[in-house]
Amino acid sequence: MAEAESGLSDYSESECELQPDCTENSEILAAMRDEASVNGVAMDVVKIIYPKIMDVRCFSHTLDLVGDKFKTPLLASFCSYWISLFAHSPKSKMLWKNQTGKSVASYSKTRWWSKWEILHQIMLQFGDIEPFLTANTDIGPSLRPKMLEILHSVPGLGQLKMELAAVIDIGEQIVRSTYNLEGDGALMVNCYKR
CA 192, CA 35: separation in Å to the nearest integer? Predict the structure, then answer.
């Protein structure tokens, strides 16, 4: 592959020659990375120095994608309404904290399992949700009625509870593994021992 095509024009074989035993080093078996294209280019550079290294995609990122495959339509809608209710409303956040004594978990597109953490809080404080929505008629004028409709419908409430329980039970193991595999060290071995 030509250097220009690989994006490695700043690197040369002479740089590798400066490294002791760079092509024979057997201490580094693999490098783990996410799917960002810049990390692919960085891996190409690492392979110049350590040509036998195994390129491993990040297990935590893979596990994080599992949550996108859960088929829980009512819970997904309820969670979306819940996130929107608090996303841009300091008043809603303050009212929730005043009623429950706990800050509402916030959503982040970049934090692993952020939605699961919100759902976990919903499960733990499920009994506070309906009284909160009923008492605070001046928040979320388009969202509040949709959530209350689910909570006041026998089939809707049953389905919501079932979907929530399944996602929390299944997700707990996946979330724990995701975070155990994040960081430094012999990650797979450490996670396997747990």
Answer: 23
Question: Hey, where are the domains in the chain?
Answer: 3-57, 66-180
Cα separation, 96 vs 52, in Å, equals 55
pTM of the model: 0.71
Q: How far apart are CA 187 and CA 190, in angstroms?
A: 5
Q: Where are the alpha helices (DSSP H) in the chain?
A: 3-6, 13-17, 37-49, 59-66, 73-87, 90-100, 114-124, 126-135, 144-152, 154-180, 187-193
Using CA of residue 34, residue 114, residue 70, residue 85, what is the dihedral sign?
Answer: negative
Q: Note the pLDDT tens digit of each residue in 82-127.
A: 999 999 999 999 999 999 999 999 998 887 788 999 999 999 999 9
Please tell me which of 27-31, 171-175, 181-185 the model is most confident about, judged by mean pLDDT: 171-175
pLDDT in tens, 30-47: 777 877 889 889 889 888
Phi, psi of 184 (to 5 degrees): -105, 165
Question: Is-contact 16 49, C-beta < 8 A?
Answer: yes
First-to-final CA distance of the chain: 43
Give the CB-side neighbour count of residue 17, counting CA atoms within 13 A. Answer: 3
